[in-house]
Specification:
Blueprint lengths: L3 E6 L3 H14 L3 E7 L2 H11 L3 E5 L20 E7 L2 H10 L3 E4 L3 H13 L6 H13 L7 E6 L2 E6 L3 E7 L2 E6 L4 E4 L3 H7 L6 E5 L2 E4 L3 E5 L4 E4 L4 E3 L2 H13 L5
Parallel strand pairs: 1-2, 1-3, 3-4, 4-5
Antiparallel strand pairs: 6-7, 8-9, 8-12, 9-10, 11-12, 13-14, 14-15
């Protein structure tokens, strides 16, 4: 897209003006065609103006940002959420692979979000991403059921329970699923370790491996080696061995 039409939705006038000014000064390819103070006003503006992107605040009176999407049968525009920091909110955005900008807005983060927007060709997964985001946000603090993986050719949605193991490869992470599929994602393993930290059956056995204990086939204490159900051999580092064996006992997993 040469020119990107944008709508800003935020209940605070100062926030709307600040974001609009930042976009004008640092992201000239963005053309702000409307600013809205609430969700119903935004729904009317979107239907009328057909923007490419909506910069959407999360916490607003009467309707929150997520509820804007219930006004549309199909979402044919990109969404970049603008939100104050909370641990659970950020995890929800990361789980759904939806772009967000933290308040107060930093120029580099805004530029990065706009650059990613420019590289997108289509928004075919936006509806599914929003549903996953709403579920993750509503269940803050509880176990994540599904995550969205950003691939070079789009998004892949994966059930967490189907993940056998994750393997680090520099700045990339390989996902191995129980059906034999493998996906390589351009994010470090630590990113997904943090995301899945509240799942009791996942454990970092080694700097290169993060595994689902439910898929262990065999464990050799003498060799510090695990064989997974997909026959991949995993190492347990010496400094993690005791914690690993204690966790197996606490979860009543017999190997």
């Amino acid at each position: 897209m040469s020119e990107i039409k944008a709508i800003i939705v935020d209940d605070e006038e100062r926030a709307r003006n600040t974001l609009s000014s930042l976009l004008e000064n640092f992201c000239p390819e963005i053309n702000v065609i409307a600013t809205c103070s609430n969700v119903p006003e935004a729904a009317i503006a979107i239907n009328k103006s057909k923007p490419n992107v909506v910069f959407l605040d999360v916490e607003m009176p009467d309707y929150n940002g997520f509820e804007l999407l219930s006004f549309f049968r199909d979402i044919d525009f990109e969404i970049i959420f603008v939100t104050a920091y909370t641990e659970y909110a950020i995890k929800a955005f990361e789980v759904s692979a939806i772009d967000y900008i933290l308040k107060p807005i930093e120029i580099d983060q805004l530029k990065n979000a706009v650059e990613k927007l420019k590289q997108k060709k289509q928004f075919v997964h936006m509806q599914e991403q929003i549903e996953l985001l709403k579920e993750s946000y509503a269940n803050s603090g509880s176990e994540i059921r599904k995550i969205a993986l950003s691939m070079s050719n789009g998004l892949t949605f994966v059930e967490v329970a189907d993940i056998v193991l994750l393997e680090a490869d520099g700045a990339y992470t390989s996902f191995f699923l129980k059906n034999g599929q493998k996906f390589v994602v351009s994010k470090k393993l630590k990113f997904y370790e943090d995301m899945l930290s509240n799942r009791p059956f996942f454990f970092r056995t080694h700097r290169s491996y993060f595994i689902n204990l439910n898929y262990i086939k065999k464990y050799s204490r003498s060799d510090n080696a695990i064989i997974m159900d997909n026959d991949i051999s995993i190492t347990v580092s010496r400094d993690r061995k005791q914690e690993f064996e204690t966790l197996l006992k606490s979860l009543r997993i017999s190997i």
